Amino acid sequence: MDEDAVRDRLRTVEDPELGDDIVSLGLVNEITVDGDRVDIDLALGAPYSPTESDIAATVRELLEDAGLEPDLSASVPDRDDLTTDEQVLPNVKNVIAVASGKGGVGKSTVAVNLAAGLSQLGARVGLFDADVYGPNVPRMVDADEPPMATEDETLVPPEKYGVKLMSMAFLTGEDDPVIWRGPMVHKVITQLTEDVEWGHLDYLVVDLPPGTGDTQLTMLQTMPVTGAVIVTTPQDVALDDARKGLEMFAKHDTVVLGIAENMSTFACPDCGGEHDIFGSGGGEEFADTHELPFLGSIPLDPAVREGGDGGEPTVLEDDSATGEAFRTITENVANNTGIVHRRSVSQGRRNEAISSDR
After folding, report:
1. Which of 235-239, 243-247, 343-347 is the most confident on average?
2. CA 240 – CA 231 distance, rounded (Å)
3. Residue 201 phi, psi dihedral angles, 5° rounding
4. Is 252's pLDDT higher than 80?
5. What dihedral angle (degrees, nearest 10) is formed by the CA atoms of 76, 342, 208, 154?
6. Average pLDDT of the residues of the chain
7. Stretch 171-198: mean pLDDT
8. Is the CB of residue 180 less than 8 Å from the CB of residue 131?
9. Taking residues 208-232, what's their average pLDDT?
10. For a tag on the chain, would you pick the N or C end, based on fewer CB atoms within 10 A?
């Protein structure tokens, strides 16, 4: 079987989210045939996302049924024309910013559980606590080991639950207030990203501080953010502030991967009833209004608070409905990250084809 025959077979593999086959979409980077061995590089950019894992599994099964020995790899073509030395975080495939318009909606809780959930899927993950004014991620994962310094004065992040961690909390005293102006924030954010030995990561989850201030702008201007997750609660006051965050990302051409609604329905363990303490459905309605993906709802569950205080992410609890809610959000974030990459590759190759025809 030659390359053209393999390509024809791959035309039967559908991308369920982009609505066409992977060949027509331009998602097959390269095919090399050597006897029964077939090397295929696919334009898949979200490691361990359920959708992309299914696409790869379908390709593998299709070729094995034809008596071939497939060896699959995945890469997204780099279109920014920067050398490795010029790139920020060149070894990080995806930077996922977790944001909220206001404090108190559980943004850090979502960031911690998203990072732990991605690691549980098998991905290589880092978690950067960029809330320089109130860093609390180390407490939420029970990480008290500070980063180590190398001879080159870079930092080696500690690891917990398979996630590499960096936080301002490691570098200041436990009760020291952080009172900085914009230029100082810019400097520390730059150092805590570029001077850290992150290694090769599939995902770097960034827990932004609430609001739309200096730290958020610094991150969006200096880091290659793949997409953002906006966390809100169902009530109107939180949704009003989430709208401001949405506008901030739009101004910086940052894709919003979806809306996560925290503190949804409370299931009372005593009376057995369900109570919408902060309202109901506001996050999903907000997503629909702005034509954004709704990532899922997280119930108001005391176990989440206990897990945060005790340093055990709820997403890792197999027999927990709340843990399942976090796992659903994690999978949706990974899937939507893949959509961003595949859609960009497909559109880029369509544009190249149009240009070559002129």
Report:
1. 343-347
2. 12
3. -125, 145
4. no
5. -10
6. 85
7. 67
8. no
9. 80
10. C
Would the pTM of this model clear 0.70, i.e. be above it? yes
pLDDT in tens, 30-82: 999 999 999 999 999 999 999 999 999 999 999 999 999 999 999 998 756 55
| Residue in this structure with the two tokens 């690891």, named with its chain if needed | 159
Beta strand residue intervals within 203-263, DSSP E: 203-207, 227-232, 256-261
**What is the Cα–Cα distance from 195 to 200, expressed in whole angstroms?**
14
Contact indicator for 279, 266 with CB cutoff of 8 Å: no
Q: Rounded to an integer, what distance in angstroms lies between the CA atom of residue 221 and that of residue 211?
A: 16
Residue type, 135: P
> Which residues does residue 96 pair with via DSSP β-bridges, in sequence order?
205, 227
Where does residue 272 rank: exposed (0-12), middle (13-18), buried (19+ CB within 10 A)? exposed
DSSP β-bridge partners for residue 213: none
List, in sequence order, every residue forming a beta bridge with 227; answer none if it has no partner: 96
For residue 211, the 8-state DSSP code is S
13, 312 contact by CB (below 8 A): no
Taken in order of first residue, the domains within the chain and their CATH numbers are: 3-77 (3.30.300.130), 95-327 (3.40.50.300)
What is the predicted pLDDT for the residue at 175? Answer: 53
206, 271, 272, 311 from 303: Cα distances, Å = 23, 18, 16, 12
Residue type for 250, please? A
Label the pairing between strands 95-99 and 227-232. Answer: parallel
- Backbone torsions φ then ψ of 164, nearest 5 degrees: -80, 135
**Residue in 139, 158, 163 with CA at minimum distance from that of residue 147:** 158
The type of residue at 143 is A
Q: What is the pLDDT of residue 276?
A: 52
Cα distances (angstroms) measured from residue 118 to each of 138, 198, 268, 352: 18, 16, 30, 34
CA distance 49 to 334: 5
Paired residues of 228 in beta bridges: 97, 256
Spatial separation of the C-alpha atoms in residues 161 and 140, rounded to whole Å? 12
Cα pseudo-dihedral 12, 17, 19, 22, rounded to 10 = -40
Handedness of CA 232, 236, 241, 243 (dihedral sign): positive
